Amino acid sequence: MTFSLFTPKNRIINLVLNDHSIRFLELKQTDPSSAQRWNERFLPPGIIGYGKIADIDSLTSILEECIDEWKMRRRSIRFLVPDPLVIIRK
After folding, report:
1. Which of 14, 19, 17 is nearest to 38 (CA)?
2. pLDDT tens-digit series, residues 40-75
3. pLDDT at 29
4. Is residue 4 part of a domain?
């Protein structure tokens, strides 16, 4: 029997950035993976538009609030970007 106090917390945080929201999902890496926590924060209009960050200062302050609210300090984070917004240039 293992106690949760002594087992490593192998949970990865996934952030999805859209034009209208920031979504958060914390997965527990077991077989199969399971969702532990999730949340969404809607962005005011004009922060991100057509896949480009328009107001970096406002987005930074919103992300800092989300880090505190969702308790993501010192955690591994994956940033996910929807496929239509990815451009690869040589």
Report:
1. 14
2. 999 999 998 887 889 999 999 999 999 999 988 888
3. 74
4. no
Instruction: Please classify residue 44 by burial: count the beta carbons closer than 10 Å to its beta carbon, then call 0-12 exposed, 13-18 middle and 19+ buried.
Output: exposed
In a domain, 51, yes or no: yes
Q: What domain count does the chain have?
A: 1
Q: How many residues does the chain have?
A: 90
Q: Give the pLDDT confidence of 4-21 residue by residue, as tens digits.
A: 565 556 678 899 988 899
Residue pair 61/47 in contact (Cβ under 8 Å)? The answer is no
Are 40 and 21 within 8 A, CB to CB?
yes
Q: By the 8 A CB rule, do 16 and 43 touch?
A: no
Residue 90 within a domain: no
Give me the domain span that covers residue 28.
Answer: 11-81
pTM for the whole thing? 0.74
CATH number for the domain harbouring residue 56 = 3.30.420.40
Rounded to 5 degrees, φ, ψ at 42 are: -80, 140
